[in-house]
Structures are given as structure tokens and as C-alpha cells.
Amino acid sequence: MTTTAGIFHAHYRLVTFGALAIVALTAFENLAVTTVMPVISRELHGASLYAVAFAGPLAVGVVGMVVAGNWSDRSGPRLPLFASVLLFAAGLLLAGTAQSMATLVAGRITYGLAGGATSVALYVIVGRFYPVPLQTKIFGAFAAAWVLPALVGPAIAGILADTVGWRWVFLGVVALVAIAMLMVVPAMRELGPSRTNHSIPWSLGRIGWAILLALAVLALSLSGELPGAFSIVAVVASLVVALVAARPLLPVGTLRGGHGLPSVILLRAVIAGAYFGAEVYLPYLLTTQFGLTPALAGLSLTGAGILWGAASVLQGRVSERLSPQAAVRIGIVGTAIAIAAALATSLFALPVWIAIVGWAIGGAGMGTLIPRLSVLLFSYSIPTNQGFNSSAVSIADSVGPGISLALAGILFGSIAAGGTLPFSAVFIFVLVLGLVAMAMSGRVNRGERPIPAPAVVRNPVP
């Protein structure tokens, strides 16, 4: 198969459509829930669990990532993908029927576990099915698949919350899961029959570390509920355990930001923590402090999603002219501008359009940054460790925001003053993370010489 064929060529078409359907479904759920969570928190009296409702799914997603990565290396990504989509539907049903915030968080955690597995399976599919020249384009298409959900997701979520109720934000997505499965089943046949590679053992130790990491992040997110000194001790202990547990799940040198692959993965964790740590609180700020309805507050997510997708497609077209380091730095600057706009709006009571426009710029920044980091990931990978490395970067994408949101929640709850001050404190915290990401940007493509990615293979196990 010539590498000049596009991702919608007949050879790739079914896999492309199936994968994009799953990405779009995940995008809709993510944007919709972020939009209506302030309403859910108020109705279920769950303000104390607001941050946990976002940090929890990210934390347990790590377990799904490790299991799916190991499973994919052994027998291909098809079965992990099917299992995770079914579990995703089960979690949506639990959240949609919840009568308390704790039950809703349990539902979110259930489909957070599934979401982690799904992301890894899709990464492995890209690495094994698409040749290198098409990987940038398919990752750009993944980001572009957020455009339609970004256009309609927040608005639909806000309308549902104002009319039939927020529960249909979850229950309505279950039907979309069934549609996605119908698309994915024939699509996965393009990968060929799965074969088990018995030379790759089940990594029970890694799964154990993943469970410990998830528990540590969950404990961190709940630490703010403890009184006084106990809270400080719990925060420190949870962070230490999380770092110790994360170390075996990541490539050597990741936690110290080693050159090449380690910095690619660590940078994903830091920049995702900065961006999503702010995104969760932006609709909260706009609805509680500026009086916007959920639908109007969701405009910030809509603009960011559209420009994220557009920038992803654009960077795919100019990938040969824009160096990885330049793309990374451009993306970080855009993200920092978005957070700074949200901070200025909360501090100085500026017009809300400043935060909304700023957040759209942040979406463009992430759309430039994330696909390029994904391609760098595969340039440092070989077929036998694509599952591990895909799992590692997905862990970074979850643990970074998970820890960031947990700390932001503690910071938000610890400030006694009302008004916008707690929001400003959160935005300052995540802006610091953005500056740390910029300081790391020069390390993603120096040092270790990238290993050329393999040519496309039809069978998921080489």
C-alpha cells in the first residue's frame, strides 16, 4: 500500500471512520459533562465532590490504560476496544440514574476506566495500521473529530439541563455508544485476525502499580476534606505514593524529564494538567459568578474545540515545514494565553467574551501541540513497545490532569473568601504549570535518536 494514500483511502476507510466515531463520542461526553457539572453539583448538593467528579475518572483511567496496553501487545487492540466501549455504556447508565453525587462519581469512574482503555487501543491501531506519513494526519483527524461535538455538545448539554434535565446528557449518549459499536465492528476487520503473542506476559505487577496510582490520585482529590494538619499530611503522602507508583508505568527517565521520549511523555502530563485544570473551572466561573446559563458558558468549550480541530488539521498539512520543537512551543504559548485570559477575567471582572476568546486560542494551541507530541511518541517506538508507550502517554494524559484537578480542588476549597478569588487562585496555579511546560519544551527532540517507525502492517501482531 502506497504511503501517499490518504486516511480515507479504501484500504484505511473503515478503520478511520470507526476510530473517529469513538473519538467524537468521547468528545461529546467530555464537553457536555463539563458544561452541566455546575448544575449537577447544585442539584445533588455535591460541591465538595466537584473536583473529584473530574479527577476520579482520570485516576482510574490509568488502570484501563495499563490493562489495554498489555492486552493490545499480546493479542491486538480489537478486544480491548470492544470491552472498553461496553464498559463505557455501563458507566453512562449509572451516572444518568444517580440519585446522589457519590453515585454519579461512581458512574464517572466506571466510564473513566473504559475511556483509558479506549485511548490506548486507538493509539495502538494508529501505530500498527497507518504508515508514518499518515500518522500525523490521523492524529489531526482525531482532534478534528472534536469539532462537531464542540459545536453542538455544550449547547445541547445546556438545553437538556434547562429542559428535560441533565440526566439525558448521560443517558442520551448510551444510544450513541451503540451506533459507534456498529461502526467499529466491521472497521476492526480491516486489522486482520488477532493472534496471541505468548512471549509477552500479562504484567500483573504493572496492573498493581496502576491500581495503587489510581488510589493515590483519588486519595489526593479527597484530602481537602480532612481537617487542618491531617489534610497537609494526606496531600504529601498521596503525592509521594502517586509518584512512586507512576515510575514503573512510564519509560525510564520520565519523572526527571530525560531527553527524547521521557520528556515527550512528561510534557503531555504537565500541559494537560494546565489546560484541563483550567477548563473544568471556566464554565463554573461563568455560571456562578457571571450569571451565564450552561448553554452560554459552554461557548468557551465550543470555540476551543473548533480551533483545536482546525489547528490539528493545519499542523498535519505543514508538518514538514514546522519543526516539532516549534510546534510544541507554539502550542504551549496558546495554552498560556488562554489561562491568562481566564485569570484576568476572574481577577478584574472583565467582559466574559475575553475569557471565551482566550480559551479558543488555547484550543488552537493544544491542537497544534498534541498531535505533534503523538507523532514524536511513535518515532521513539518499535512494534513490540508501542502498546507500552501508548499506555504511558495515555497515563500522562490522565495523571497530569488528575493530580492538577485534585490540587486545584484543594486550593479552591481552602480559600474562605467567596466571589472570584478561589477561581483566580486555580488559574494562577495552572498558569505556573504552563510555564513549567515551556521550560521543558527544548528536551522533546534532543538526545536519544528516534527509532524509525515501522511500515504499515495488516496484522495487529508483527
CATH topology: Growth Hormone, Chain: A
H and E order: HHHHHHHHHHHHHHHHH
- Count helical runs: 17
Main CATH class? Mainly Alpha
The level of helicity is over 70%
The proportion of strand residues reads: under 5%
Mean pLDDT: 83
CATH architecture: Up-down Bundle
Poorly predicted sequence stretches spanning 5 or more consecutive residues: 447-462
Describe the structure in your own words.
With 462 residues, this protein is mainly alpha-helical. It has a single domain (13-191, 200-443), classed as Growth Hormone, Chain: A. Helices cover 74% and strands 0% of the residues. It is built from 17 helices and no strands. Helix 2 packs antiparallel against helix 3 (78-96) and helix 16 runs antiparallel to helix 17 (421-440). The chain starts with 12 loop residues before the first helix and ends in a 22-residue tail after the last helix.
Offer a quick outline of the entry.
The protein is mostly helical and 462 residues long.
Which key features would you list for this structure?
462 residues; mainly alpha; Growth Hormone, Chain: A; 17 helices; disordered C terminus
Secondary structure elements and pairings:
Blueprint: H1 13-43, H2 52-75, H3 78-96, H4 101-129, H5 132-144, H6 147-162, H7 167-188, H8 204-222, H9 228-246, H10 261-279, H11 281-288, H12 294-297, H13 299-317, H14 324-348, H15 352-379, H16 386-414, H17 421-440
Helix pairs in contact: 1-4, 1-5, 1-6, 1-7, 1-11, 2-3, 2-4, 2-8, 2-16, 3-4, 3-7, 4-16, 5-13, 5-15, 6-13, 8-9, 8-16, 10-14, 10-15, 10-16, 10-17, 13-15, 14-15, 14-17, 16-17
